[in-house]
Amino acid sequence: GVTVNGTLDASGQTGTESTSITGDLGGTGAANFGGGVVTVSGNVSVGTFTGAAGAVDIGGDVTSANFTESSTTTKIGGTTVTFTTFTANGGEVIFDSGATTNLTSGGAYNDVTIPLGTTVTLQNDMVVNGTLTVNGTLNVGANTLTVGGGVTVNGTLDASGQTGTESTSITGDL
Asked: Going residue by residue through the chain (174 aa), what tens digit of pLDDT does each one get?
């Protein structure tokens, strides 16, 4: 694994270059990536994680105070995902744990996909400004779900935990 307490700056990467970390990416610092593919086989727990144009594939849990997604795809395979501040970068976040993922996030997503075999359980409100695709299960719980684009549900969208003060709002097509 890699520990970053200062800055890991790979923002100059081009599309033909990649970063591959076997194990965890941790520390209190910032990890900034560019146009190449970024793969972390373990957990990511850093102060700031910035994806750019390259695809990002994280095999484990994510805990980050400031997380910026890739402008293409960001795959997260962990069962605990916590962002204090999440910044959409025009890409798609795919929660592909194949199990239950507990999601705590501050910020709005562009596009979100939950594949077959994955359950995402919201720990707070979720805003998706683009499209939401649920092929697995999305448990909204006692939280508000707001989707500005279309929603495709081939799995389960469960809002039964809402108590009356929350809502599910879809602006686009369902």
From this structure: 999 999 999 999 888 899 999 999 999 999 999 999 999 999 999 999 999 899 999 999 999 999 999 999 999 999 999 999 999 999 999 999 999 999 999 889 999 999 999 999 999 999 999 999 999 999 999 999 999 999 999 999 999 988 888 888 888 777
Convert the chain into a string of H (helix), E (strand) and C (coil): CEECCCEEEECCCCCCCEEEECCCEECCCEEEECCCEEEECCCEEEEEEECCCCCEEECCCEEEEEEECCCCEEEECCCEEEEEEEECCCCEEEECCCCEEEEEECCEECEEEECCCCEEEECCCEEECCCEEECCEEECCCCCEEECCCEEECCEEECCCCCCCCCEEECCCC
107: alpha, beta or left? (left if phi > 0; alpha if psi -120 to 50) = left
